[in-house]
Structures are given as C-alpha cells and as structure tokens.
Amino acid sequence: MTNQNFWDLLQQKRPELTKSGHIVADYLTQHAEDAQYLSISSLARACHVAEATIFRFCRALGFEGYNEMKIALAQANAAPGHVVAQTLEPGTSTEALFEHAAAAFSAAVSGTRSVLNAAAIDQAATMLQRARQVFCFGQGGSGILAREIWAKFATISSKFHTAGDSHMELTTASLLGPEDVIVFVSYSGATRDMMTTLKTARNNGVKVILITHYDDAPGTALADVVLLCGARESPLDAGSIPVKASVLYVAEVLVLRYSLDNQELTALSRDRVSHAMSSKLL
Known about the structure:
With 282 residues, this protein is α/β, with parallel strands linked by helices.
C-alpha cells in the first residue's frame, strides 16, 4: 500500500485515468465521507459503471484492490485538515465519552432497525423451525458473534450448533443436506472463506441465512434469506463494538420471533436449563 495521501495520489494520477476513471474520481471527491463505507458493488452502482471499472481505477492509483483503496481513503479522511464528524481529541472528558458511546450504539441500532425487513425475519424463523440442524458460522470477530447467537438459541433447542474455525465450518458444510440451515454472520458478506463454505453448502442443498451489512455483497447471491445490519463501520474502525451490537440486535429479533412461534418448547427448554444451571450459582 502506498504511503502517499489518497487525495494527493488521486490528483497526481488524474491525467492518466480513463473517462470512467474520472467519473469514479469525481464521485469520491464529492462523497468522500460516505464513499469509505461503500462496497465495491455499491460504489459501482453509484457511479453507473461496472465493478471491473472500480477495480481498474484502484490499480491505476497503485492499489492492489478495492479494500486497500478504501482504507487509504478513510486514512485521508481522518488526516489533519480533513473534518470528520464526532472526532475525539485526546483531552476529551470521560463524561463526554459516555455520550459519544451512547450515540454510537443508538445510531447503530436505529440504523439497523430502519433496514431490517420483517418478512425476512419471519422467513428466517420459519426456516429455523423446520430445520433438522442449524449451524451458526462466522469468521474472526463475526465468528464470536455467531457463537453468541448459537449460545442463545442453544437454550431453546439442541439442534443449534457451531463448528469452530473456517476449516471446521467448511468440513461441516460438506456433510449437511437439504434439511439443514446455516446462519452465517459476515459484515462484509465478501470473505473468501465464507464464499467457499456457502458454495459447498448450497451444492448440498443447505438453506442459508446471511446476516450482513451490504445488500449487494457476493454472499447474498448464495443466501435464501438476507438480514441486514444497518450500522456503518469505517475501514479504520474494524471490530466496532456498536456494529457488533447491531448484529446482536438482528439476532435478538430473530430469537424473539422463533421463541414466540415455539412458545411451549421455549418455556420447557428454558425451565430445564434454568434448573440445570442453578446448581452452579452460589
């Protein structure tokens, strides 16, 4: 990755850009703050060009790919002299951090609430109800969230499972069938391991529920149901806790729908779990 400021680099390379490249450059200049949150598909659609054009634009600037370009854009946006909303200074009081964090969580959840589709939740809950087995998958930080979702559903039914790292997820997917469901958590919806696992699952007829931020992510083409997380994550803020909270908000709505649709099972299971766990409390 080049160490040169993105805007300086763009200005330097402008004369070498194609006509389509100039369109992309103009869009990034006019929408600098919002563009850093877009997927390659979203940026291509906004510029009315093909994804291949975006990729060629990135290479023309000296980047290996889109994500590297997006990180450079975010770094330039955060550089001194570029105004970024809600920038925190070293001397910010702890009391002000309370409000900053509260606002970030509120925005993450409200943003997700605005894009979460009720029909998609209903469809996903029905798929879970009819499934023989349900596996909750994810990689990296999303893997932690997937295990949290599994842990919640596991208090209702033993048909919910998880499978460790990406190798075990792929192994598991290769052995599942049409009666099984995978709930996959991926903010980007575009990781190589996820695509490999989901392609294997779909080849076996497995149904897929994808929790992601981008409605045009590659993974959505392999999903039966897409549940959108509306929280925005900057390339410089990977692992954002408010974003994680928004994913768990989606999961909570799904758990509530599933629980209400299976009230007798839920009540019986949670009573048995509570009784079993009581011996562990002092």
